Amino acid sequence: MSLADPALAAGDTPVDADELARARARRRERVLRWLLPSVTVALMIVLWDRIVAWNEIPHYILPGPGLVAQTLVKDAPILLPALGVTLQITLMALAVAVVGGVGLAVLFSLSRWAEMCFYPFAVILQVTPVVSIAPLIFIYVDNRLAGLLLCAWIVAFFPILSNTTLGLNSTDHNLRDLYRIYGATRWQRLRYLQIPTALPYFLGGLRIAGGLSLIGAVVAEYVAGTGGIGSGLAFRILEAGYRLNIPRMFAALALIALTGVVIFAVLSLITHLMLHKWHESAIKREN
Amino acid sequence: MVVTWRKPKPLGERAKLLEMAAVDKAFAGGTLALQDMNLTVNEGDFISLLGPSGCGKSTALRLIAGLMHPTRGQIRWEGGEAEIGVVFQEPTLMPWATVEQNVYLPFRLKGQSFVQVRDDIHLVLKLVGLEKFAKAYPRELSGGMKMRVSIARAMVTRPRLILMDEPFAALDEITRHKLNKDLLELKEKIASTVIFVTHSVFESVFLSDRIVVMAARPGRVSTELTVDAPYPRGEAFRTSADYAALCRTASDALHAAMGETA
């Protein structure tokens, strides 16, 4: 309800102790939400460092965090271009997954027959591990970039397809009746009713797909092996492994993890920006 | 949109708008939702369909709205097209659209641009008392306000007939009384015809000039009552002896209709 007691809205009203305690708890939680994970991660890194130092573990078995950081800086001329390659494949795969996933979902919602015919294929592609399909793909697809993209796409498109399909079919039945009464065309129903309804579902799928397209890109690179041209982070990890350059393996791994986190954060931000005005998931309640 | 405070003609002199003639509606499962339903709707009528649940009130409304076709019998519109506005039990607003964009929907689906109809939209929002909330999102509104938006959307195209399916059933009593009163004023202002489904005797007596009492299993018209009280009606009418007597008559008719099945 939007009704508020004007006396309570004013700042000079005395507030009971219970309410004050609740406000304090809320403030505390806001700080702890950032502080606690940061401190935990920092502690783990320190612990890692100490374990390596106290046990005198050689760097070709387990490098300490300091050495990994040094390697990250020292090997930047090798690692950053590799990151660029992996990122390029990831983002292109995500873009193709969005286009393909949404396109298929719209097609399925326009034609239930198409859905019945082709949905099984989407499920089969999804449940078959990409590592087992990838070698075949690299036999049939000459272009290495296209092969990598295809692998990453296979992994990433399904959550977008399944979520968007669910969203497009989740329209309010009364609104559907209303559109019929006003003689809406199929296109109008899709444009003004189904797509806005599906938006939160799509964005949920997009956040999953963002992480998956990175996984797909990395896995595909492993399978594709040393192509020479345009080698990504996964290739650098393999290569460093052969040379027992364990610190560089860790550095590359750290870059991949960081990339995943950044992709998730950016997609979460996009979700928030698109939904915060109206969707329940983005609304903060006062009581 | 010109706002006219037009008094509807007396009951006997109104032009026919819509006729349901011997309408049966059977569902594929074998349920007979409506049997031999006859109803004449005249321009300016405020008709309540009053009955227990399962008496086919909502089915009748869906048939009139053209969402279903009768199994037997006919639904005939007198002259012109079937222009309808609908209000459901839930406000049924699009949560991603602002109040004015929700009210704009019927025009948008007819292919009219927002600029063309902005004045109509703002006028009808003023009529329902929400002109300050044009840019608000539905979640920012109370239940009663959302229902007002829903009513505004149904009225904005000035349809010849407005169908309302228990629109106030989920609201608290204070809000319901206020909306009842405002609905009557609105109906007079836009000079439309209303068919109002309800299971509340009090609501039907307060609002309508004709009450069609329905019986269940199979759904059919049991009796029709005329509420002979002048509009505009307000709190004075709600507390009058006439109102109490009319409520008793309607209540008896409803019980008689329910007794038919017992």
Automatic annotation (TrEMBL), chain A:
Top-rank lineage group of the source organism: Bacteria
Topological type in the membrane: Multi-pass membrane protein
Domain ABC transmembrane type-1, first and last residues per copy: 83-271
Keyword Isomerase attributed: no
PROSITE patterns membership: ABC_TM1 (PS50928)
GO terms under cellular component: plasma membrane
Gene Ontology annotations of biological process type: transmembrane transport
Similarity comment: Belongs to the binding-protein-dependent transport system permease family.
Protein name per its UniProtKB record: ABC transporter permease
Originating organism: Paenirhodobacter ferrireducens
